[in-house]
Amino acid sequence: MMVKRPPMGFNTWNTFGNRIDEKLIMESADAMVASGLKDAGYEYLVIDDCWSKYERDPETGKIVPDPEKFPHGMRYVSDYVHSRGLKFGMYSCNGVRTCADYPGSFDHEFLDARTFAEYGVDYLKYDNCYRPGSADQRTLYRRMGMALRASGRDIVFSACNWGQDDVWSWIRSTGASLYRSTGDIFDTPESYRNIARSQMDKLGASAPGCFNDMDMLTVGMYGKGLVGSTGCGDADYRSQFALWCMFSCPLMLGCDIRSMNDATRKLITNPELIRIDQDEEARPPIFLQGEGENDRICAFKFLSDGDYALGLFNLSEEDRDLVVLFNDTGLPASAGYAFALTNVFDGSDGGVHREHLRVHVPAHDCVVYRVKLVQP
Q1: Do 354 and 208 belong to one domain?
Q2: How far apart are CA 284 and CA 248, in angstroms?
Q3: In this structure, what CATH number is given to the domain that contains residue 364?
Q4: DSSP string covering 180-238, please?
Q5: How far is it, in rounded angstroms, from Cα 224 to Cα 73?
Q6: CA–CA separation, 329 vs 321, rounded Å?
């Protein structure tokens, strides 16, 4: 399926792991609508691993939903999600077993794709565990890409191979709509920072049709859930969300959306940040930083409407002044133009600046501007 913009939604794994059931999914669907997430653009509700019985049906060969977790079956859950104006996603794996040791889709790809279509699935996350050593993952992702196309339903294909085997260089050829480019995220400052840094030189491969997926967001988890770890503060969550938006990554929430606080809700529904993430051209940013300066990221991004986005991220443990020289963005002083800035977090006027910008950024935090080219 051709995906023109990075998908937005919610995935159960980060917070709930195997603790999933139809009640949780239906409550989450209700919360996506009531909290304003749906109106903000979040449309996919994705059930991750652990939804099925431990073995396939011996007569049909199909994967069977766990009757204790999903007593009414998956079509019932799918229909409820669709009734709320949302789209429904599920999970499988290219191996014999999934990562949590449930039936995988290896050698059952076409049957499973038809089964997902029967459920009314709109999005498939496809993992990479327990793959036979003799099986080439490129072939297996192509196989599922072909199976989904033959299923009779448009299904977003989310390939999850954790960034192995230079995935960005070949995954588009498999029919995938997005591709996991990293290992699993954890709810720590170090995790999201390392993930973001690891993809800075690889974003040129991400574009409409097949987007770089840096994993589900931990924004709003505060140390709770399966990948709770130490948790992060609001400054780190601002930086994480803004980095994902500047990189045009999918925005798949991992917190419990039924109990978000106001700070989380305000951040993840920020219309200007989402506008940057969902820009139709999805161009990678230019990185403006000196050699070895790993404790800051300064990113400048061309947007499709003629504006630009500028993100200044202080990843250090101390408050700092971050400096951007406009010549490095492509704007020389001799051009006679300047940058007019608007803060995307609070809408405040950031002023008109020529040649350079110096901004004070607290530790772990960021400042992001909408930028217009003007003649002062």
Answers
A1: no
A2: 7
A3: 2.60.40.1180
A4: E-SS---SSHHHHHHHHHHHTTTGGG-BTTBEEE---B-TT-TT-STT-TT---HHHHH
A5: 29
A6: 19
Neighbours of 65 (CB within 10 A): 22
How far is Cα 189 from Cα 258, in angstroms, rounded to an integer?
24
Res. 232: pLDDT tops 90: yes
**How many domains does the chain divide into?**
2
Same-domain pairing of 333 and 239: no
Active site residue 127: yes
pLDDT tens sequence across 247-261: 999 999 999 999 999
Q: Extract the tokens encoding 352.
A: 């008109």
Cα–Cα dist 155/123, whole Å: 5
Residues 159 and 215 in one domain: yes
What DSSP element (H or E) covers 93?
A: strand 87-93
Q: Does residue 158 form part of some domain?
A: yes
Q: Which member of 48, 122, 127, 236 is catalytic?
A: 127
Q: Name the residue range of residue 341's domain.
A: 286-374
Q: Are 142 and 177 in contact (CB under 8 A)?
A: no
Assess whether 191 and 242 both reside in one domain. Answer: yes
3-state SS, 18-75, equals CCCCHHHHHHHHHHHHHCCHHHHCCCEEECCCCCECCCCCCCCCCCCECCCCCCCCHH
Contacts of residue 86, defined as CB under 8 A and 6 or more positions apart, other chains included, come to 9, 29, 32, 33, 38, 43, 44, 45
**Centroid of chain to Cα 125:** 12
- Active-site position among 30, 79, 184, 328: 184
Residue 318 domain-assigned?
yes
Helix/strand/coil percentages in the chain, nearest 5: 30, 25, 45
Q: Please state, in angstroms and rounded to a whole number, the distance separating the CA atoms of residues 135 and 133.
A: 5
What Rg, from alpha-carbon coordinates, does the chain have?
21
Record the pTM: 0.97
Are 28 and 55 contacting, i.e. CB atoms less than 8 angstroms apart?
Answer: no
Task: Tell me the pLDDT tens digit for each residue of 78-134.
Answer: 999 999 999 999 999 999 999 999 999 999 999 999 999 999 999 999 999 999 999
112 a catalytic residue: no
Give the residue among 347, 350, 340 at the shortest CA–CA distance from 376: 340
What is the torsion angle, in degrees rounded to the nearest 10, for the CA atoms of residue 95, residue 46, residue 27 and residue 49? 10
Please tell me the distance from the alpha carbon of residue 367 to that of residue 273, in angstroms, as a whole number: 11
